[in-house]
Amino acid sequence: MNAGLPVRDRLLPVEALPVLDVPPAEIARARELAARHGMVRDRGMEIDTPLITRVERYAAERDRPAVADEHRALSYAELAVEARRFATLLEREGVEPGTVVGVGGERRIEVLAAFLALELVGGVYVPADASWPAGRVRDVLDQAGAALLLTVEDEVPAALREGAEAAGCRTVPAGGARDCAPWRG
Question: Which residues cross the membrane (predicted)?
Answer without folding.
Answer: none
